[in-house]
Amino acid sequence: MSDFQCIAKIQNDFKTKFGLPRQSGMAEHLISKIVMEKPFRVPDAFRGIEEFERLWLIWEFHTAKKEGEWSPTVRPPRLGGNERVGVFATRSPYRPNSVGLTCVKLEKYYIDKNDGPVLIVSGADLQDGTPIFDIKPYLPYADSYPDAAAGFTDRRQKKTLSVVYGAPVPAGMSDPQRKALDEALKNDPRPAYQSDPDRVYGMRYGSWDVRFRVSGETLTVISFEPEP
Amino acid sequence: MSDFQCIAKIQNDFKTKFGLPRQSGMAEHLISKIVMEKPFRVPDAFRGIEEFERLWLIWEFHTAKKEGEWSPTVRPPRLGGNERVGVFATRSPYRPNSVGLTCVKLEKYYIDKNDGPVLIVSGADLQDGTPIFDIKPYLPYADSYPDAAAGFTDRRQKKTLSVVYGAPVPAGMSDPQRKALDEALKNDPRPAYQSDPDRVYGMRYGSWDVRFRVSGETLTVISFEPEP
Predict the structure, then answer these.
(1) pTM attached to this predicted model
(2) Alpha-carbon distance B32 to B71, whole Å?
């Protein structure tokens, strides 16, 4: 057993798991802020970081954590949720150690007078409040293998939905927020198997509850409600 | 704090840290065997894994572990050991959580009658006996960014040495073992700053103690001694 401490927490618009992008490659526009925990607010520890375009985050699937429990097989959403694959052949949260791995783009690094060193990143598939264990630079010579065969994820690319806004986008929603919302919706946040065109879904996003329906290949946003 | 359990251990020819490749990109030929700990010898957990060409290993820098201690800056070997960089801008072992990240190539997967599911991988920069916390598939669409700028690692590519064998390669050394040894030697295992051409270094490799000298850009292997 090894103890890992939370060194930072992430902040973004995905307040719940529903709608959260399922991989970083699907959340290109989602902006997140990484705020260090107090003992790690040390600017020296980030010296040179702004020269890296991308970073790795190693983090905790804190909402998926189940003490001592793990299942050898899982049903990945990409396979429609009806095919079982070994957990080590997936990036599923339900694994022996609840540790996640995500490559993000470093958009900005600065020192905040209250929070100390802050990283603004895009492309994180982490829910708001997720604890982070480590931040490492992305090294293409060790980490990039564009042509590596990737099993079932190669065979079945998920179809994306067309997104129609049947309600005005709130004035308070920024352009990057709107783009990240588009991405989340077009990747179909519904659980596998559900295809009732009358069903209204609600997705917490920033300070809104985004209500939508899906019919065939089209997702229609019905309304933006203030958060409950 | 989160408790992580060791799910597997790696076995290879690097019995000590000296000479161990400093990134996976420098250990292409090094073959390692991953043997699961008993509770994880479950073939179902690997269903589909052989369709992936590459895997991530998340592991523990177990020899670098220092309870509660970390240094905000480190001196990466690639910068000659004389320039300080923030720990989060490096892949140094001396970080708040002693966690390592390595992309390996999956060479073979099989079920051993004693050890259960076994993974044979190449390219691991992990010392023999290193505890592994997680094994994940490599997904190019989420993990591969060949053109990402990479700070100081872009600016200074380490020079490699010419390797000369002044002693016969032992009959018991396989061709892949010899290739992996070549890689380790040409990447200059010496600590930074050392440049005494008369000094004899000894590197534990497999069942041998490999003795060598370095003069200028040439590394000469003097002898292969049986392990002490």
Answers:
(1) 0.91
(2) 31
